[in-house]
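Before relying on records like the one below, remember that each one covers exactly one chain. Contacts with other chains, cofactors or solvent are not represented anywhere in the record.
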Amino acid sequence: MVTTLTRVVVVGDLMTDTVAHATAPLARGSDTPATVTMHGGGSGANIASWLAVDGAEVAFIGRRGADIAGRNRDMELMGYGVDARLVMDPERPTGTCVVMITHKGDHTMLSDPGANAALSADDLPRDLFAPDSHLHVSGYTLLNAGSRRAVLAAMDLAHQAGMTVSVDGASAAPLGRVGAEPFLQLTNGAALLFVNPEQGKVLTGRDDASQAARVLNAWYPHVVMKLGADGAVMYAGGRAEPVRVSAPPVEHVLDRTGAGDAFIAGFLPPWLDRKPAHEALASGCRLATSALSLVGARPLL
C-alpha cells in the first residue's frame, strides 16, 4: 500500500462502462457472441478509485446525472474511500462508454459524456484547493469543450493555492481533434504530463516514443511515457538520460481497460513524496499490472 501526506484532487469524468468482450471474430452486419458486463468508469473517477484503494487521500470533482447509474457511481466512489464531490445534473444523464474488445484484445470505445460535458467552474469546491494538495486533471475533461472552462478554472485555483498540477493525454483521437498546439497552451503550467506513444505522436509528430517524450520535456518539467507491457519511462528537468522501469510479467491479461489510469494512481503518491523516479514508475507499473487482472477499469470493492 502506498501512502502520501499530499491530498490528491482529481477533476475528471465519471462514466458507466458497458464492456463487451467478443469471443470470436466480429461478424460485421450480423451477430458476434460476447461477454457483456457493466462497471464504473471514467478516467478521472478510475484514477481516484485506484488512489484511494492504494492508501492515498483523494477527492474527486465531477458531475453525474439524476439517475440510478449516477447514484450507483456515487456510492461506488464512497465505497472506495474517495471524497466524492459530485454535482447532480437535473437534465443530462450520467456519462456512458461502450467498450468493445475484439477476440484479439483490441479496444474501441464509444463515449457519450452526458453530465460530464456540463461541469462548470461553479462546481469546484473551493475548500479542496489548498497548498497541501495536488491537482490531477483528466485529459478527457480538458478536451471536452463543454467542461474545458471548469478545468482551466481548477488549474487557476490550484496555481493560486501553490498546488502542483498533473495532466494526462486522455486518448489519441480526441487529442488529435483538439490539436497539439491548443493542448500544449491549455496545459501551460502543469508540472507533470502522462502520455502513451500514440498520444505522444499526436503532440509531437514523432513516431519514436522516447523522442516524443524528450520533445515534450521541453514543455513540461516532468513527462512520463506509459509503454504498456514495456513498462514506462520518465524524462525530468531536461536530463539527457531518462529513467526506465520494466513492467512486471503478466501471465494472463483479462482486460486492459483502465490500466493506464491505474498507472497514474500508482505513480502520483511516491512522486509527490519526492521518492526516486524509478520507485514512482515501479509503483505505477504495479497498479497497472493489478488492473490487467480484472474486468473493468476499477479495483474490486
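The mean pLDDT is 93.
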